[in-house]
């Protein structure tokens, strides 16, 4: 046994933590502001403005991260006394979601926040909303046309891989593993571009410290598939130094496989930022996880409010809401986990 994950805790990601705290939730509700203990820019944007109606359509909550996307969006809308949030039923059916957006258009809402079941399939109806003068905020899954959204807010899948790879490199260096390090990867659904982006980022970051992905298996973002993929990996490889699992929901199954095999000689890294993962980090059962913010739709609600009220972003010299925003992918470790725990989602 070369090392245990509980002995490999590192203080990386602190600066990213400060950046995340600087943009923590604020609103008109005093209770929400009490929960925000980090530094915050105060501007007239926080004051009640013109009353607006925002339509929100998200996916079916069949995954912890997706459930958090929906719940944080609803919670954000409730913080503003000048916002009426109309929430469509979550769905994985593009046709049903198209119907929801058509209803929003017919009702004349002031803005729409949309995490599409399928970006290409929802492009036409989103474009119709834009042509009707309703700004659309596209979340996470991009449309196939620039004309379908006023602004797009995304997590950073490639950046997740880079963050995980950089952290793995720090473990290699600090534990003097050199070229003998055995690095494994448990990916998500291989056919998805987001999985490919995460893998590309991980691979390319590892190359900066002379490492490679020695063993790679793919799961399907579910507990069952995670357990199966991890079991296959452990059966095939006798000793591993570092394992990066792309998704903390499938990580429940991955960790179950580790326990069944009685294997813990490796540093276990996760992805997305579930509360399970953060509790494991606190208990010394997991090295770190990389955030894929479940607050993207909540940020979308904020941006939609600004757009509907003809406001800009107070912290920019050019105040207009940007056309595209990519959120950071910080690493959560035992040293900074308390700062991120409120952003975690239940698997």
What features would you describe in this structure?
It is found in: Cell envelope. Helices cover 41% and strands 15% of the residues. The chain is α/β, with parallel strands linked by helices and 347 residues long. Strands 2-1-3-4-5-11 form a six-stranded parallel beta sheet, sandwiched between helices. The chain is elongated and about 60 Å long.
Features:
2 domains; 41% helix; alpha/beta; disordered N terminus; 12 strands; six-stranded parallel sheet; single chain; Rossmann fold
In short:
With 347 residues, the chain is α/β, with parallel strands linked by helices. The chain is built from 12 helices and 12 strands.
**Total number of β-strand segments?**
12
Number of helices: 12
What is the H/E string?
HHEHEHEHEEHEHEHEHEHEHEEH
Shape: elongated
Provide the β-strand percentage band. 5-15%
Give me the secondary-structure topology.
Layout: H1 14-22, H2 30-35, E1 52-57, H3 64-78, E2 83-87, H4 94-107, E3 111-114, H5 119-131, E4 136-139, E5 151-154, H6 157-174, E6 183-187, H7 193-207, E7 215-218, H8 223-236, E8 242-245, H9 248-261, E9 267-272, H10 275-282, E10 288-291, H11 296-308, E11 324-326, E12 331-332, H12 337-340
Parallel strand pairs: 1-2, 1-3, 3-4, 4-5, 5-11, 6-7, 6-8, 8-9, 9-10
Antiparallel strand pairs: 10-12
Helix pairs in contact: 3-11, 4-5, 6-7, 8-9
